[in-house]
UniProtKB/TrEMBL annotation, chain A:
<protein>
    <recommendedName>
        <fullName>Sm domain-containing protein</fullName>
    </recommendedName>
</protein>
<keyword id="KW-0747">Spliceosome</keyword>
<dbReference type="GO" id="GO:0005681">
    <property type="term" value="C:spliceosomal complex"/>
</dbReference>
<dbReference type="InterPro" id="IPR047575">
    <property type="entry name" value="Sm"/>
</dbReference>
<dbReference type="InterPro" id="IPR001163">
    <property type="entry name" value="Sm_dom_euk/arc"/>
</dbReference>
<dbReference type="GO" id="GO:0006397">
    <property type="term" value="P:mRNA processing"/>
</dbReference>
<keyword id="KW-0508">mRNA splicing</keyword>
<keyword id="KW-0694">RNA-binding</keyword>
<dbReference type="InterPro" id="IPR010920">
    <property type="entry name" value="LSM_dom_sf"/>
</dbReference>
From TrEMBL, chain B:
<dbReference type="InterPro" id="IPR039924">
    <property type="entry name" value="ICln/Lot5/Saf5"/>
</dbReference>
<dbReference type="GO" id="GO:0005634">
    <property type="term" value="C:nucleus"/>
</dbReference>
<dbReference type="GO" id="GO:0005886">
    <property type="term" value="C:plasma membrane"/>
</dbReference>
<dbReference type="GO" id="GO:0000387">
    <property type="term" value="P:spliceosomal snRNP assembly"/>
</dbReference>
<keyword id="KW-0963">Cytoplasm</keyword>
<dbReference type="GO" id="GO:0006821">
    <property type="term" value="P:chloride transport"/>
</dbReference>
<dbReference type="GO" id="GO:0034715">
    <property type="term" value="C:pICln-Sm protein complex"/>
</dbReference>
<dbReference type="GO" id="GO:0006884">
    <property type="term" value="P:cell volume homeostasis"/>
</dbReference>
<dbReference type="Pfam" id="PF03517">
    <property type="entry name" value="Voldacs"/>
</dbReference>
Length: 93, 229
């Protein structure tokens, strides 16, 4: 639940989602659900060589299970806050 | 569960696809007059798109033996594509997860000996003749994707299922029945000294473990240091 809450707060920010198949997509985080499925707006493909067909899509839905990681904006992350929240959640608090 | 795209030709009397009602599969949306383009191949039409709670089925209107299906569990992403420079018609673009075959030299090879291997298809476009339906289709895809989260395995690779571990605080010592504190403490960025693991009878507020099993009783025993072990 922690990451779901965390991503909800990131809505509206620019993120780059890298999928397990190496495709990287940059876009504005539109929404996220409890399975960390991600909807992006204003998407553009970071590596245009591998998947050129994707250049044009404006919005897309990405299955949570295929996400390798999500690059967050450097000033969009309060590391200490996240750290404390993670520990609290781990303790069941 | 089948990964990837596959042939599908099970039809009922009225031409609609036969669903697995015993598992609760329901038809969510039907879109007639949809063409399908697999990978780099040219578009196939005419056909009808059936969207169920479990999968996506395209059935050819012209050839009753031709049809394709892919589980939503295999659809990595979907999007509305409207740029005419990228593709001539507005369509729903989807990426399909494929089984990675390590023996394959060329991962993009879909055809060998002229026979199309559907399970290697990574991209699929659905082109409705009515492009005003694209947003509706996109939303239905989103809905169905959300209905199909990754199945949680009872005894999967992780013993604790999907529990995330953030620090050694969370490591399970095991009821009262465990004989000794032989649990491994993983390297944790946070200090675990002085923290209990839920068993209050063992943990002390201070770091003095007066347990006779420890030899060096006169010293402060730090959990992260090992002496003669």
């Amino acid at each position: 639940q922690l990451f779901f809450s965390y991503f909800k707060d990131l809505v509206g920010q620019e993120v780059t989602v890298e999928l397990k198949n190496d495709l990287a997509i940059r876009g504005t985080l539109h929404s996220v659900d409890q399975y960390l499925n991600i909807k992006l707006e204003n998407t553009r493909v970071v590596d245009q060589d591998k998947y050129p067909h994707m250049l044009s899509v404006r919005n897309c839905f990405i299955r949570g299970s295929v996400v390798r990681y999500v690059q967050l904006p450097p000033d969009g992350v309060d590391v200490d806050l996240l750290h404390d929240a993670a520990r609290r959640e781990a303790r069941g608090g | 569960m089948v990964v990837g795209l596959r042939e599908f030709a099970l039809r009922t009397g009225d031409g609609s696809p036969a669903l697995d009602e015993s598992s609760g599969e329901e038809l969510m949306h039907v879109q007639p007059s949809v063409a399908v383009a697999l990978g780099d191949r040219s578009v196939e039409s005419p056909g009808t798109l059936y969207i169920t709670s479990r999968k996506l089925i395209w059935l050819s209107d012209a050839d009753v033996a031709k049809g394709y299906a892919v589980d939503f569990l295999s659809i990595s992403l979907h999007a509305v594509s409207r740029d005419p420079q990228t593709y001539s018609s507005p369509c729903i673009y989807t990426q399909i997860e494929v089984v990675e075959d390590e023996d394959e030299e060329d991962e993009d090879e879909e055809e060998s000996n002229g026979v199309l291997d559907l399970s290697k298809i990574r991209e699929m476009r659905l082109v409705p003749s009515d492009s005003t339906q694209l947003d509706t289709l996109f939303d239905v895809f989103c809905e169905c994707a959300e209905l199909n989260p990754e199945p949680i395995e009872e005894e999967g690779e992780e013993e604790n299922g999907h529990n995330w571990v953030f620090s050694a605080d969370q490591m399970v010592v095991g009821g009262g029945g465990e004989e000794d504190a032989e649990w491994q403490i993983s390297q944790s960025p946070t200090s675990v000294i002085g923290h209990s693991n839920g068993d209050e009878s063992i943990a002390q507020p201070m770091l003095e473990i007066n347990d006779q099993r420890f030899d060096d009783a006169e010293e402060m025993v730090h959990e992260n240091e090992t002496k003669d072990h």
